[in-house]
Amino acid sequence: MASLSFSFSSSLLPSVSLDNGSTSFSPILRRSSSDSNTYIVRCAFAAPARKSPPPPPKRHWKQGEFPGITGTSAPNKTPLKNVKKKLDRKNNAKAWANTVTEALSDHISKKQWLQALQVFEMLREQPFYEPKEGTYMKLLVLLGRSGQAHRAHQLFDTMVEERCEPTSELYTALLAAYSRNNLIDDAFSTLNHMKTLPRCQPDVYTYSTLIKACVDASRFELVESLYEEMAERLITPNTVTQNIVLSGYGKIGKYDQMEKVLLGMLESTSCRPDVWTMNIILSVFGNKEQIEMMERWYEKFRNFGIEPETRTFNILIGAYGKKRMYDKMSSVMEYMRKLQFPWTTSTYNNVIEAFAEVGDAKNMEYTFEQMCAEGMRADTKTFCCLINGYANAGLFHKVISSVKLAGKYEIPENTSFYNVVISACAKADDLIEMDRVFKRMKDKHCQPDCKTYSIMIEAYGKEGMNDKVHYLELEKNQVIDDASNGDV
């Protein structure tokens, strides 16, 4: 972190000036109407009246000083310049805290979990800083999304130790961190612990989060048990809950179950289908390249009175792009313009991805340039598509330039990003660079996944480097074991 310096020119209190601009004053003395030599006799031994001595000239107070009690009249008071120093130190501390807090928010927004934790630890060491519930919430969510479930657990323990009372929302964030990393046993343990705390009872969002983890792991028997538990606790599933289950059945091809859930939503009064339901169904068929079913369901949802949104059109564009149906892809984009739906980063990403898959570098570059010209901010997926496209086209020098450009734009480097770079190195038969990227991935605390190891094992296997293959297979198994035990 760059060193910071501050300067302050404000004074403790503004200086006082007189109306006539003078730096001292003396009161106007009124003479007695009688003669100055006349004595007023009060008693037989009355002394002659004496004039009061003129008051001492008032001091001209400098900037930053207080025009009141002097040091001689109040010797026990703290010197004012020391008070000013203390206030300046306090102001410096507050300014430092505000700047570092801004840095923390910046790292969180950029999904830089390691830097965010480092800044947070720096703040916690300061006696004047008290972390708030919202800060812990943001960090827990960030760590969960970054594959750092064990660090999320450590942060939660730290929060409890510092007597920051946990809430149902914070427990749900911890449970979500476990769920995102497929640590279902830990997520259920968190749920059971919440049930014992009167002020942290699970709600529909807690159950929806855990149901999603079970759906992603294809543990539908656990989904049924969670539904039963919700009914016992008088918690009604909402549209989000049903959409999660709907998506899960669609991904594994259980269309009968998917239709059953959808019909239940249509008959319900509390969880009616919405545009997210529409997007889920379209994504299911679009990802499986079942274009006719996707178009048929699009018309059905329109007949239900559900209007599409930008994401709906992006799903259609992505599906048409995968099938290389460029005419329909262009028609949807023109239709978006006609209805004044803005093209988003996802819109451009889908088009770039369509050209990247077939190695059409020319159209891919043209789309990226148009994206930048319209002020759209590129994200990690944008550069993943660009790198993959250049690798498919055999333009490996442009792979390198794209990686450098991503660094210049401060694009978050997640597991998918490193995987596509490693894959590009493997396609170029540059195993030395592939190994170097793999080491950088670890140095950046970005956890490799099964796809990472599969790419590298296949690349080393083609070259007959069996010792490397054996080592990577052992490491892969160890990572899987650590993930199942919650040590990743």
Automatic annotation (TrEMBL):
- The residues that cross the membrane are none
Ranges in coiled-coil conformation: none
User: Which InterPro entries does this one have?
Assistant: PPR_rpt, TPR-like_helical_dom_sf
User: Is DNA-binding found in the keyword set?
Assistant: no
- Any single GO CC term annotated in Swiss-Prot or TrEMBL for this entry: chloroplast
Keywords assigned by UniProt? Repeat
> Repeat PPR: residue ranges?
132-166, 203-237, 238-273, 274-308, 309-343, 344-378, 414-448
- Which Pfam families does the record cross-reference, listed alphabetically? PPR (PF01535), PPR_2 (PF13041)
Q: Which domain of life is it from?
A: Eukaryota
Name a single GO biological process. chloroplast-nucleus signaling pathway
Question: What family is this protein classified in?
Answer: Belongs to the PPR family. P subfamily.
**By what name is this protein known?**
Pentatricopeptide repeat-containing protein At3g06430, chloroplastic
Query: What is the scientific name of the source organism?
Result: Momordica charantia (Bitter gourd)
